[in-house]
Amino acid sequence: MFIIFGGLFFLMFGRLLSIQITGQAEGRQMAAMAEAKYARESILKAERGKIVDRNGELIASDTLSYRVIAILNEKATEKGAKKPRHITDFEKAADLLSRFIPMEKEQMIQIRDAAIKRNAETYQIEFGKAGRDISHETMLAIKEAADKEGVTGLQFIEDKKRFYPNGNFASYLIGFAMREEDENKKVSTVGKMGLEQTYNEELTGTDGKVDYQTDIWGFILPKSEKKIVAAKDGLTIQLTIDKTIQNFVEDAMNQVDKKYSPQKMLVIVANPKTGEIYAMSQRPSFHPSTREGLTENWLNDAVQNTIEPGSTMKIFTLAAAIEEKKWDPFAEYQSGQYTIYDKTIRDVNRTGWGRISFLEGFQRSSNVSMAYLLERMGDRTFIEYLRGFGFGEKVGIDLPNEVPGIILDINPSERLTTSYGQGSTVTPIQMIQAASAIANDGKMMKPYVIDKIVDPNTGKVVDDHKEEVRKSPISAETAKQVREVLASTVTSDAGTGRKFALSGYSVGGKTGTAEIPRKDGRGYLSGDGNYLYSFLGMAPIDDPQLLTYVLVQQPKLELGQYGSDPVAELFTSIMESSLKYMNILPENSQTSTTKSLSNHIGDDAESSIASLEQQGFSPILIGEGGKVKSQYPEEGTKLSEGSIVLLETEGDTTLPNFSGWSKKMALSFKMLSGLDIRLNGDGFVTEQSLSAGAVISKDDPVVLQLKSPEDQHTIIEQDEMEGEEEEEIIGG
Question: E-strand spans in 472-558?
């Protein structure tokens, strides 16, 4: 026995010595086996990058969501546990879930049965798309119902969901992203359309992880080190879009859609000085979160579809004639019809207006006047100008799948019809680029929608888009003359643009009525309303700050209504609201009461405040005083008496009374002060969460409630009506 036990001891000792020396047992590395047994890894989820407007206001971001898991296996419940951790009555659980997620009870049972058929020991199941993207409120409601009804075995795992807080907001520009499962069963958010798809790589973050070691029960081993690889969130895309102006566009389009039910609409608002796109929307539209309203058309019509522009093209025919010195506004021609070879074109009323001047011909949108202008300058010269304006080629905007359009140039009749916008095709974004040369004194600006791309992990700007001047075919003097003629189409009794006049602002522009090609390619649609109505306009006309292009296709018109009516309703509503929001004063007040703001940067705050008050302005100090670091508005801005001027200095900020401030001014205060100011609504400030005079830190949130003048007026009327009712009750 001694020999046997001694032999076993030496055998065991030799085995231990061998393992210690080689680190192997049965041909496998022991360290690797231990690592596999005790090592754990926790994933740190990265957030998909945000999309924000020019002022940093949220357009798209990740938000917390949940997915539901049904625990089937009895082994999940430990012996002696007071409450089961698995589902004890699946039909009851399925009945409960069917009330909260979009899946029928029977389908859930089928999923359960199929899983058990594959593996009788199935531990848990999920319910696909229906069981994902569950909101926090729904998750709490399911838990509450489960506790009340005695349903066990339902668990929730935190997840990410793409959040679009503004609903149907620039949806064809922004696009959408959705959760997808790859072949390895890994679920991630993927851009499917618009900017979400184009910049999917930039928006997609990189998950991090935490490596650590546990014992067999899952507790972290003492003195074991955690190895953390931080998650890297996706890049933030800041747009040139202004959320407030975009909302003006969306609201106006909703109203016109409700009133006229057109087949299509499109609006683009741009800054002609820089090429920045402030708003871009189309109808039909859809909600990016639910895709409700999304049709078979996935194209952004501003850049991916072409149109025949109609008479808005006459702006550029006129510009070419003026630049070539062939424009004589008071020379006369015979209106009505014009024949070239076998092609006869006619004015809109078929008979014309007799002998009229070229100026009146433009105001009346005479096609025949364009024919005579082509005679004067040469039709091939005209085509060269069109190409100089950028037609027939992509503008190179930072959006996907842009199309170039086609300028017909084979024979004289094609060049003739192109002069008044028929036959040749353009994109709406080309019209914006070309018109910027008219609005911006001959400087043609490349349109763009991405302001910058920022890495939120470091704060570094990785891509900064700057304004870009394009070579323009016209001079500043020509641009000024064109604007004067465009203004006359709105002010003249003969002008087709009279409906587009703005209250307090001079406007210039050109109407358009284009025929719509049939889908089979055989000619054009006919009949009342079967046209593409448009207006390309700018204001204030002496120094345009906004350029807006409006398209309305096939509106349903009642007796006495015209195709220009819905276009005018869109244009005037958007432009008047936007100009006021941008603090561009109406011209009747601008000439008499405005003063040019001087530069106060580097001056003493106390003396600057005294100087500004003496000039009739309302200075607001950001900080405690001392040297002025920055100011808003900038030097040279023309302001009316009583206008707010922000002066930034060092130190803590005392809250002002925000009542009556515009959203733009409130956002400027937020950026200069660095305070956590949150804005609800649009228009002007009516309430603030913290009183004026409070000194706060950058961690204290301040909520400002804004309302449009129309909303405030409605509230006042309701209050007055309620007051009258109370008086009647008291009097009765």
Answer: 508-515, 531-539, 546-553
